[in-house]
Structures are given as C-alpha cells and as structure tokens.
Design goal:
single chain; mainly alpha; three-stranded antiparallel β-sheet; 3 strands; about 60% helix; about 10% strand
C-alpha cells in the first residue's frame, strides 16, 4: 500500500508542477484543447503536416469545411501559435499557411490518433450497426 500512495503523490506533484491543467475550469489550456481537437482543427493540423498550403488548397483537402469555419479555425490555431500565416505582397493576394515548430509537434500527436481511428474504424463502428 505504501508504494501506491507514493505513486499517487508523485503523480499529483507532477500535475501540480505543470503550467496548465485542462481539468481546471478556468485554465486557458481548455481553449487551446478546444481549438486543437475541434472538428476542423484536427483535420487542418494533419493536412498541414504535408507542408505549406494556400487557403483554397486547405479547403479542398479538408472536405466539407465552409470558408467561414476554415477561416475561424486558422485564426484560432494561429493565435495559439500552431499555424503560421504568411501574406505575400502580390496581386491578387496570396496567403500561405504552414505549421510552426509547436504546430508540427501537436499535429504529429494528432496524426497518431487519426491513424489509429482510420485503422480501427471497422471495430469502432461495429457496435453501432
């Protein structure tokens, strides 16, 4: 019993030492988690793992997203420091989106989840039918 209480204390200490706590209602990490794990946030981040994309390219690759939702998603991910927006001084306007190093880090983690879902889809949907 001694060992498990030490493990629990160690886990609690690590949790308290972290700068964020998504379980705390007022923690800003909740907003970041919401942006990253939103319906479109996951897809945009995973698509951008393939490199720089223009808005129209992103819209084509992320099937079903409206212009408004894609724009809102990109603004949120940019404000969190995951996406870099580069506006080139040309006419017509040319804007490119790419991942920042932090964005690549989170997108690689999401890609593992997306791959797992795709690989296990038959097992996931079997109970639903």
């Amino acid at each position: 019993m001694e060992k498990s209480s030490k493990s629990l204390r160690a886990a609690l200490s690590r949790r308290l030492a972290r700068p964020g706590n998504v379980l705390a209602p007022e923690c800003p990490s909740r907003a970041v988690l919401s942006h990253v794990t939103s319906r479109w946030g996951v897809l945009v981040l995973v698509v951008l793992l393939g490199g720089m994309h223009r808005f129209s390219q992103l819209r084509k690759e992320v099937g079903g997203v409206s212009e408004k939702m894609l724009a809102q998603t990109l603004v949120a991910l940019e404000s969190d420091g995951f996406v870099l927006r580069t506006a080139l001084p040309v006419i017509p306007p040319h804007v490119e989106y790419s991942l920042t190093p932090l964005g690549r880090e989170v997108a690689e983690r999401l890609e593992v989840l997306v791959d797992w879902i795709e690989d296990n889809l038959p097992r996931i949907i079997a109970p639903q039918v």
